[in-house]
């Protein structure tokens, strides 16, 4: 016990000793008082009364406001040594207190370890300084318009300073016969660092032993306005003529002369008429902007007396728009094509969206006028999608891609009508929404600089959204909700939706997505044309009459056959020959050396006069079938059961287009349609099924149940087969043992619906006539289902793709969840003997996803603003894609919405500029992919614009500096500092200003809110 107490006392004494030394300085926050310690004790003073840092001295010398510890300074935190950074300069082994006391940033690391202390060469204009990157940035601070240059790869000051010397100009004597005027660095590089070869500041005609004769001829120097003398070796010398760019002259070659002089910066005698310097304008293939295949938009400009030739992006992905101000000064610009002009495509690979114009329509037998109007409307719709249908190429030669099964030619007035629609759409310029022309055709409001979509839903409600760029979203909302009958479906991948028949507005574009699963089963709408023709045959055979079924087929554009016009691609040297332009001139045209000055468009196999050789393609034949060849064709064996899809094909010995018909000896260009596709290929295949009515006794009596398909093929040069290639197949008589198959639906399976939709029309399309039922609760047998479809019951009721429609209304749709529908069908609906009918043993499960509401959670700015250039910002949440939407704005309830510059995300932004002082209100509307909408408004006041203009760029142009500002302003300049009103004026109320180049230019700009901003410019 005594030992334990003794140890504790020792511990207490030691603890007390440490407490005295460690705790006492803390009581006064490290401040020293006379009561605490004796003045004779030495302390480490963070700072002395005389202003010195980290001194080990008498405590009486310490600054009482700073720290002090009775220990050596090397044992203190505040006097630890490290790297000190002050204004970008780094000093090693600096006490922490001394560094921070002088406004520096201290680090315990060595200077060599700090990134901001790494030295390099700082380049400011023509000045070179060896310093740190941080210091370099501070040196740049007065010159925000200059691009920051810091070379960390330069490790010594001498190398940095040599960079300045390297830019000095003079004559470099490479050898006794070669003299060139260049920079010191280039000369040292050429002479392997022989400094004696360089004569600083001397013309080559003036150096010893030079063979160059002075003032041999005149010419222009890049970046200079004056005319210069050149010696006989081609080296520049002093100016020969003083051109004044500000007065409208610059160095140039006189027209029809080899002499150089001060010429006008304007272009008075250009092929486009008299043009001012800086003017730009648009040029098209033809007098007006068109969407002819291969056409392109071009921008031309006058710059320093020369015409500059530029191209907008190919395939009309950019279009050229042009405007003229009140002074007659024109400006053209290539902008992104948002659909105001149908874009081009690699038509030889297939133009997306052409099938949107595919349709089948039933007419009374003698409705000739209605058929003509329908054929014309489908033609316009087809050619308005893009490179689809029967269009001309850019030189006016006709191609093909549109056909109809009625055998009706389009009327003469249809092209004029299409041109009128196109011109109306183009009025909107680059800001018109995609598919504006189509919307105009449909009769949907397509206001100036806007597009519109009207969605009509099953409950009769409509939702119209107008505004640039909202077409696609509007179309999709209708597509997933309206459930329009497939026979009337029309969609376009560019987003527009149309109804071809007068008086009908079709507002569903489901076909583009919903019909996609048929790609592997049915090749284009040619199947519908074949089936329609077969049905017509059956009608005649069975004695049925009354109606005519017409099928419109819109395919990717095909060029004229042959290649006799390929050479026209290079006729105009100012319009580059590209693959797009070349291929549009003829099926045999191909581009060589594209994107080079040696580009050439030439015909392949130009002297080929042989038509393609057709042979079977057994490898694509559906499993279970075989081919037996005949003299000029083949038979498919065994017999094909009704309503069973069968795939078959042909091969050609050269790339060819192939067509098909059920009549013999039809000319190639008059045949029903293409065998599979319109592309030039060596393998072609097709899939379709035969109706069971082919086994009807009367049909069997007339045809033997055999269908003959007659094929012709044509190569690039227009050589078509004179004789038909015949493919035969026979329908299998006998009982039908296969239940119906749902091939597609009017609404895409698993589609999303806007929150406003609680019911919708819905159609399922089957491979045969049927009776269908469904359950919206749980899966069950056909006979237990109580909800029914209205179905096509006869083969005569076939719709698009030879399918049979069953339609119903899906109601009580729940939102924020999946709505499942279990569908089962029974075939042969007219069969009285129920034992002969086939019923689905498993359900086709169709799902609709009900979405939640789209919400605007943030909309700014609001309140008082002091800037004339506010940014509208909106945030959306919910809806179909977790807030992703397109948003538009307008300043009046009577205006159309304009799409935000940055949208189709959760956050949407639109920069506004140069708003005058006053009150503003903007109305916001957002739309998600399925048609959910959200609206709000924001109000703010522009109190006063206190932010002046900012320099965006400085470009050297001869002896002038071209300065671009962030906003409209009036600027003045001088060689000395000045106040606005006492300088020389550059220009008034513009963003572009020109000042003479000098060592230092002082400039003051005043914006429309009287904000003055001074600039100091160092060229």
Architecture overview:
The protein has 1019 residues and is mainly beta. It has 8 domains: 2-79, no CATH class; 267-336, no CATH class; 354-527, no CATH class; 564-605, no CATH class; 610-734, Immunoglobulins (Immunoglobulin-like, Sandwich), CATH 2.60.40; 742-850, Immunoglobulin-like (Sandwich); 854-942, Immunoglobulin-like (Sandwich); 951-1017, Immunoglobulin-like, CATH 2.60.40. 13% of the residues lie in helices and 36% in strands. The strands form 18 sheets. Strands 32, 33, 34, 35, 36, 37, 38 and 39 form an 8-stranded mixed beta sheet that branches. Strands 57, 58, 59, 60, 61 and 62 form a 6-stranded antiparallel beta sheet that branches. A 5-stranded mixed beta sheet has the order 41-48-47-43-44, with no helix packed on it. Strand 18 (267-270) and strand 19 (273-275) form a beta hairpin. Helix 6 (368-385) packs across helix 7 (414-426). The N and C termini lie far apart (90 Å). The model is unreliable at 1-40 and 421-525 (pLDDT under 50).
Instruction: Count the E strands.
Output: 62
Ranges where pLDDT stays below 50 over 5 or more residues in a row are: 1-40, 421-525
Distance from N terminus to C terminus (CA atoms, Å) equals: 90 Å
Cα-based radius of gyration, to the nearest Å: 41 Å
Helix/strand class: mainly beta
- What number of structural domains do the residues give? 8
Describe the main β-sheet briefly.
Answer: 8 strands, mixed
Shape: extended
Q: State the helicity in percent bands.
A: 10-25%
- Average per-residue pLDDT, rounded, comes to 79
Question: What is the oligomer described by this structure?
Answer: single chain
Give the count of helical stretches.
Answer: 13
Tell me what portion of residues adopts beta-strand conformation.
Answer: 35-45%
